[in-house]
Amino acid sequence: MSRARLRDLGIVIGQLPTGPHNAITDVPGVLVGHTTLIYDEPRIARTGVTAIIPRDGQIWQDNCFAAYHSFNGCGELTGMIWVEESGTLCYPIILTTTHHVGTAHEAVVAYGQERELAGISSLAVVGETWDGWLNDLDAFHIKKEHVVQALNAAAAGPVAEGNVGGGTGMICHDFKGGIGTASRVVETKSGRFTVGVLVQANHGGREDFRLDGVPVGQILNYQVIPDPWETVAPFTTASSSILIIVATDAPLLPHQCKRLAQRATLGFARVGGLGHNGSGDIFFAFATGNHLAEGQKTLTWMPNYQMTPLFTATAEAVEEAILNVLTAAETMTGYKGRTAHALPLDTLQEIMRKYPPVS
Q: What CA–CA distance (Å, rounded) separates 178 from 243?
C-alpha cells in the first residue's frame, strides 16, 4: 500500500471535527514550507528544514501571543527566554536538525534584516531534533539558502508529511518518523475557533506505541519489524525528542497559550510518549486572535472557563499529527547503511479491525 494519512486508512480518532486540510494551516494565516535534502554524495544527507510562518508572513510586524512548555528538556528551542518574558512570538518558527540550530538562527535573522522585516534585535525561534542515525550530521549539510528556501516555500493548504523538511531523517517509536500535522475545530461561547498542530517526531520506544489505546507497538514488535537501533547496545537507544507547535485563532493571552502548550502533553502521551531522560519534548503554542501591530490598542480574550474545548482539540490534534507522521513516513536507509522501517499500513489496518475503538 502507498503511504497515506490516518483517516485515509479508515481510522478516525477523537470526537471533534477537523479543519478542511486537517493541518496547522487550517488556522487562518499560518503557512508551512519545507526544504528536504536527500543525497549520498559527497556525504550522506537525510535532513532538512521546516518553516512555520504565522499571519501570512506579517509576524515580524504583527506579533502573536505565545508560550512554551518543556515536558523534558534534553533539546533546544531558541528564543524562549524572551517568549517567556514578553509573552510574544515575533518571528517565523524554524524546525531542523541538532547541529544546524545556529545556521538556521542566523539565516532567519538575515532573512528578516535583508527584507527590512525585523527590528534591530532578533531572537529567532529555532527548534531541533537529532537525525544523526540516518543522516551524516557532521557533514553540516544545511546552509543559509536551505532555510531561505523553506521560508520562501511556505504556503497555506495541505502540508507535506513524513520524510520531509526537518523531519527527513527522524525516527518515531522505532519506526520511520518525521513531520505530521492535524487540526480540530471547536465551538465556544466566545466563538468558533481552530486549533492546528505540527509535530517533528523523533521520539519513543516501540513497546509504548499506541493507536486509540491499541498496543500496536507490542504487536509489531522487533521480530515483526526490525529495530532501527539494532547495532546499539541494550538500553542506549538513540531515539529522542519531539517538537510540537500548536496554533490557534482563538483570542488567547500568553498565560492561556501556556495552558494550551501544556495540553500537548496529553496527545503525546496517548500515542505512547513518556518523556525519556534523553528526549527533548518541547511544546510551543501561539494564538493569532489578537493583533499586536504598532498602534493596536484593543485586546480581546477568552475566559479561562471556556478553554476546555481548546484543551480537548489540542490533545486530539497532537495525537493525530503524530500518527500522521507514522502513516506518511516511508522506509529510509541512510548513514552507514542504517534503515528505519515504515509502519506497515496494511498490517495496521488489520490490527485495528480486531479491536473496538476506545476514543
A: 11
CA neighbor of 195 nearest in space, from 252, 246, 145, 155: 246
Q: How far apart are CA 325 and CA 6, in angstroms?
A: 9
Exactly one of 122, 240, 241, 249 is catalytic; name it. 241
Structural domains in the chain, sorted by start: 7-350 (3.60.70.12)
Given 122, 183, 239, 279, the catalytic residue: 279
Query: Residue 235 pLDDT > 50, yes or no?
Result: no
* Mean pLDDT value across residues 62-80: 96
Per-residue pLDDT of 96-131, as tens digits, reads: 999 999 999 999 999 999 999 877 678 999 999 999
2 in active site = no
Sorting pLDDT into bands at 50, 70 and 90, what band is 293?
confident
- H-run or E-run covering 327: helix 308-328
d(C-alpha 130, C-alpha 137), whole Å: 9
* Element spanning 326, H or E: helix 308-328
Question: pTM for this structure?
Answer: 0.97
CA distance 164 to 48: 7
CA distance 183 to 79: 26
CA dihedral 291, 106, 116, 67 (to 10 degrees): 10
pLDDT digits (tens, 9 = 90+) for 173-186: 999 999 999 999 99
Residue of 343, 348, 23 lying closest to 160 (CA atoms): 23
Mention every residue, 6+ apart, whose C-beta is less than 8 A from residue 273: 203, 204, 208, 242, 281, 322
pLDDT, position 30: 98
Q: Is 279 assigned a catalytic role? A: yes
Amino acid at 32: V
List the grid coordinates of 135: 543522516
Estimate to the nearest angstrom the gap between the alpha carbon of 312 and the chain centroid. 18
Query: Measuring CA to CA, how many Å separate 203 from each of 105, 114, 152, 346?
Result: 23, 36, 29, 23
**Maximum distance among all alpha carbons in the chain?**
62
Picking from 54, 98, 88, 91, the residue whose alpha carbon sits closest to that of residue 68 is 88
Residue 342 CA to residue 112 CA, distance in Å, equals 38
- Catalytic pick among 190, 281, 346, 359: 281
C-alpha cell at 79: 528564543
